[in-house]
Design a protein that fits this description.
By secondary structure, the protein is α/β, with parallel strands linked by helices. 38% of the residues lie in helices and 24% in strands. The chain has 3 domains: 218 residues, FAD/NAD(P)-binding domain (3-Layer(bba) Sandwich); 115 residues, no CATH class; 104 residues, Alpha-Beta Complex (Polyamine Oxidase, Chain A, domain 2), CATH 3.90.660.20. Strand 6 and strand 7 form a beta hairpin. The chain is globular and about 70 Å long. Strands 1, 2, 9, 10, 11, 12, 13 and 19 form an 8-stranded mixed β-sheet that branches. Helix 5 crosses helix 7.
Length: 506
């Protein structure tokens, strides 16, 4: 038996569910499949272990796009809480506030090292590397070699498992553009006088990297996506968990997709659809398409970084106020420590705390394949080593693995994705890639949602009036973009493609 739908969506993460929610308001013939048999939300899901809730990676709800913020509150109107943003860096046995405090950094580093950092910064500004291509070169130009080595190198190489000289400058431009050392020092001085004012860039825009508060669902980000799933189904859409995409075949004559999905027990289900929206990793998606796309080898070259969280339950409340701590110390493997009660008190039982130690790895490597008991022992040892808690205070623990958490920005990824995009858009006009892994772009949750919202508009309009690949391009939308789609239409970034063509006389 074959089920026919207008739109078939692969993946029930933020992008897939946003697309389904927007579409089912006007087009109820929408079906979403999700590989996970239990959770929706993808990397933005909330995992439950006994009475504890875990956020996989930490997801602040903050966006410059009014349409995204409005959609959050439309889906989850009564369950947001306002939370203070507090993060620190652990380096050299000391803690540094993030954003950096000029006075604290000076005191921690010492006069000699701080002076060397400022001279290095001045040298980099006077003699920048032209056309910086790597993460190392980009950060060196922005902050100087000394600050790069102290606050960027070790942590970044932990995250990616590769040298900063192998990582594309696109990664730095996308994630930390707008964060300038001079501006950071000025903001540190302003915060000492007016601590509640948000940090701003030179043009007056709020720097997203430096926001000082954010909204958060009281029971974690999964609360948002579970609500979205319920509303999609109430609007007539369907959501099937525990399904993995097996094959995609496009009939050019009928302009119809023929799709096969397989359930956990091996049952094959068949569907047809006019449109397919995919938030699945591009490398995995391309393996299912027949006939095989000519850009298949480019997809095979794409890489991903995985990570796992070791959650430690601690029999103490309110241990420290940070949402998370970045661990730059090369003596330990842990890269970041989440403090779930600081995200929301409702994520942990009263009188308890829960810390999530994040370890970045590759699926199948020694860390990924380690026994849970060995990972828990490692986490307990390292949390004591960096001095956050005594290992003896840990009363329980759980391990959560997250494959393909981060698309890798190596020196070839951009060329590979350009070939894939050209191939798919030319050959399969009704196949739409959205979200972080669907587009192989390190998007935040709000950017993934924006790509899905614009894709839904394209489908409802019957043509690609928006170029979703401009969302978050070179970080303009990410760090200093306009407040939403409508105001962005006046810029080159998110102007509809047809309007752009007309303006250019083509």
């Amino acid at each position: 038996m074959t089920t026919n739908v207008d739109v078939f969506i692969i993946g029930a993460g933020p992008a897939g569910l946003t697309a389904a929610y927007c579409l089912t308001k006007q087009m109820p013939s929408v079906l979403v499949i999700e590989k996970d048999p239990v959770y929706v939300g993808g990397i933005s899901r909330t995992v439950r272990y006994k009475d504890f809730l875990f956020d996989i990676g930490g997801h602040r709800f903050f966006s410059k796009a009014k349409e995204v913020v409005d959609l959050w509150h439309e889906i989850l109107p009564d369950d947001f809480i306002e939370r203070p943003r507090l993060s620190r860096i652990f380096y050299g046995g000391k803690y540094y506030s993030y954003p950096l405090s000029a006075f604290e950094a000076l005191n921690n580093l010492g006069v000699i090292k701080s002076t060397a950092c400022m001279l290095s910064y001045a040298y980099a500004k006077a003699f920048p590397i032209k056309e910086a291509r790597t993460f190392h070169e980009w950060v060196r130009n922005q902050f100087g070699e000394r600050l790069f080595s102290i606050f960027f190198k070790t942590y970044t190489e932990k995250v990616w498992g590769m040298s900063c000289d192998e990582i594309s400058a696109d990664w730095a431009a996308q994630r930390i553009k707008g964060l300038d050392l001079g501006v950071a020092v000025k903001n540190a001085l302003k915060r000492a006088i007016m601590p509640k004012r948000p940090a701003k860039a030179g043009n007056g825009a709020v720097i997203k990297t430096l926001i000082e508060s954010f909204q958060y669902p009281r029971k974690g980000p999964g609360m948002m996506w579970e609500a979205a799933a319920r509303k999609i189904q109430k609007q007539g859409g369907r959501l099937l968990k525990g399904r993995e995409l097996k094959s995609l075949s496009y009939d050019k004559n009928r302009r119809i997709w023929e799709i096969e999905a397989v359930t956990a027990d091996g049952t094959v289900e068949r569907y047809t659809a006019r449109h397919v929206i995919s938030s699945a990793p591009v490398r995995e998606l391309m393996q299912t398409i027949s006939p095989r796309p000519i850009s298949y080898l480019h997809a095979r070259a794409l890489r991903y970084r995985d990570f796992l969280t070791v959650a430690l339950m601690v029999n103490k409340p309110n241990m420290f106020p940070d949402n998370w701590i970045y661990v730059h110390d090369p003596a330990v493997k842990v890269g970041r420590v989440q403090n779930f009660s600081s995200w929301s008190p409702e994520m942990v039982p009263a009188g308890m705390s829960c810390l999530g130690l994040e370890y970045f790895c590759f699926e199948g490597d020694q860390l990924w394949d380690a026994k849970d008991s060995d990972l828990i022992a490692l986490a307990k040892r390292e949390i004591g080593q960096i001095g956050l808690i005594d290992a003896a205070d840990v009363v329980d623990a759980s391990v959560v693995r997250q494959p393909k958490a981060y698309p890798v920005y190596d020196d070839a990824y951009r060329d590979n994705m350009e070939m894939i995009r050209l191939d798919l858009e030319t050959t399969y006009p009704t196949l739409h890639l959205v979200g972080r892994n669907g587009m192989h772009k390190y998007n935040n949750q709000d950017h993934a949602m924006m790509t899905a919202m614009l894709t839904a508009r394209n489908i409802l309009a019957g043509e690609r009036i928006y170029d979703i690949w401009d969302v978050n391009e070179d970080a303009e939308y990410h760090e200093a973009g306009s407040s939403g789609i409508k105001s962005a239409l006046g810029s080159e970034r998110l102007v509809p493609q047809r309007a752009r063509v007309a303006a250019n006389g083509r």
